[in-house]
Amino acid sequence: MHLDESPAGHATLLAARQALIQEQTSAGHWEGRLSSSALSTATAVVTLALSLREPPSDSFGDGDRVQRGTGWLLDHQNEDGGWGDTDRSFSNISTTALGWAALAFAARSELVATAERRAEAWLTNAAGGVAPSALAKSIEARYGKDRTFSVPILTMCALAGRMGPGSAAWRLIPQLPFELAVIPRKFFTVITLPVVSYALPALIAMGLVRHRHRPSRNPIARLIRDAAASRSLGVLDSLQPPDGGFLEAAPLTSFVAMSLIAAGHATHPVVQRALDFLRRSVRDDGSWPIDTNLATWVTTLSVQALNAGECLTEHLDEHARTSVRNWLLAQQTHDEHRYTGAAPGAWSWTNLPGGVPDGDDTPGALLALRDLDPDDQTRQAAARGVEWLLDLQNRDGGIPTFCRGWGALPFDRSGADLTAHAVRAWLAWRPDLGPPLQARVDRALDRAIAYLAGAQRVDGAFVPLWFGNQHVSGEENPTYGTSRVLLALQAAHGRTPRNVGGAVSRAIGWLVNAQNPDGGWGGDAGAPSSIEETALATSGLAACADNEEACRAAGRGASWLAQATRHGTSFPSSPIGLYFAKLWYYERLYPIVLVAEAFERLGRSEGVS
Length: 609
Prior knowledge:
This protein is an all-alpha fold and 609 residues long. The protein has helices at residues 7-22, 38-52, 62-75, 93-102, 110-127, 132-143, 150-159, 188-191, 200-213, 219-239, 250-262, 269-281, 295-306, 312-315, 318-331, 361-371, 376-392, 416-429, 435-455, 478-492, 501-514, 531-542, 548-564, 590-606, and strands spanning 36-37, 288-289, 577-579, 583-585.
């Protein structure tokens, strides 16, 4: 599709652009809306139900929240008897086990009993039975050596009585070493914790409840944990954000609170703040989202999308650009983070206090600020952000999510998508940096490009860390990864010591070959086409204007998008996010943002505005 010759393409460009502009809030940013989550709802229901068993009696309406939450779960159980993370997700063992556990706290009725039987039938088919040993084996197999999520799931099942009676319920639940949380953070890279960096609150709370119900037979280990319990609670108190929500996420907040309640700490301030967070974040229909919002992330994506055709000043007036720039500057961190120890100067995915500075939102903010008429204040903020990313870079040259050198568990290891994002941010700001920082950037770029070269699969694809596709084997999304890395490689072409031409050609070849016969893309070759993935692939290929094959494929992608979005007037979302440890969500703004970016970039390559 050539936009200068296609009324449908030009109409889609104008409509998608306008739809995105209209989403800007009066405060200057974009906020979006995350899907409701069966997983979040189940965990919040159990937490509130457990709190109701503790004095004083319910004076906050939690009983009603529990019943509305279980009602939502009943209404959103999949036809196969399981639950997926969203109402558009396939059933999976984690969310089904949690939904089944939550129903233990529902008011008894034939409807609830039927839903339980259907869930048990699904679990039996997936895990070989609902016996504790079968559940534990299947859930642990899903997450491997990373216990960040397997232990919380099993813990909640135990608290719901689904793992057997008394202390026997805890036999199959690993003891997390909560006592290690009291040692200085600088030793974390040495001790190889079984959870990732953001999960320290869960490490403490889950470890405490397991120790309370089934303490170690080793008298020395038992004494150490007894002695560390009070101090670890103090650490947990210091880690909690002011609004009570760990990571602004209902699941993590719920897991912490339910564990502390069951460990005998129902009146602890951490629990009370967590309960208040859950009460505030419940939706009118009785559900909870996976996180409060991705405001910073979707704002930076929106700005980049509107400037993909290098015409931002034509789309946002000076007041709108100033508003979003000031809002983004206000989100930059100024203090060391509570529990990842991240230095000041970075950005998280949200404007709320539970966010954690990370290696994807920081380059996103840097790229957006580059597009927003940077002044001296912006340049100073950008220099701090660039330096923060430089300090985050791993020994292998890649960029991890939260912390440098914590280990090889998911989200603490380098990712191709994060590294690509950092490469683009470094290149964008390099001309504004002083010579010493420029020299550091040059060295970092060379190492990052070398990392990406090593991360590219033989077939030319790149697998991302942060996004997946439920239709793809292994739940990976090479379409997302390859399209995002392709943008970085194109930006680096001729501007770094390393020749990236071969990697660019292989990435283009993979995307072209992965295109579906209908002109769209899914998460991998043969996966059903979606608006999000088709827009991503179209955008990546449109950046390769000197490659005829890429342009033809991008044109076919644009034609598919024009039809799928009714020329930019309809944007149904698909589950695309791979969040925490195989948690799915969809975001209302993603298809709007990504379609706008694709058509802006395609229009730029053809000189259309």
